[in-house]
């Protein structure tokens, strides 16, 4: 499961659709609707929120917005809870930088044209759910995987 912290605009088609599916899986885990992935480390940042389902709903909404901008139709009715108002989770610069390097390595292999498009970006924008703060790679991240 990879719930990218980078803005969905940087994801190629494969990563965008996988992010949607994995976000829906994260939502199912947080709802208690599945027995798999219950201890997945990427869920820690959502579980730490006062309203985890609203947080993952906001995350999914950001992915669906990007999909719509590209002409894809992700079924927004599958998002079980949207936030009551503006919501922002903290994202450390170290985590964003780590994920950016990880994504660029994937894109170079799978979608070289997309990698070339973003090659000059030093630090990407985060997903709209996240507010960037100085800090290290997240403790739940598993570097090298």
TrEMBL record:
It comes from the Bacteria. This is Pyrimidine dimer DNA glycosylase/endonuclease V. It comes from Arthrobacter hankyongi.
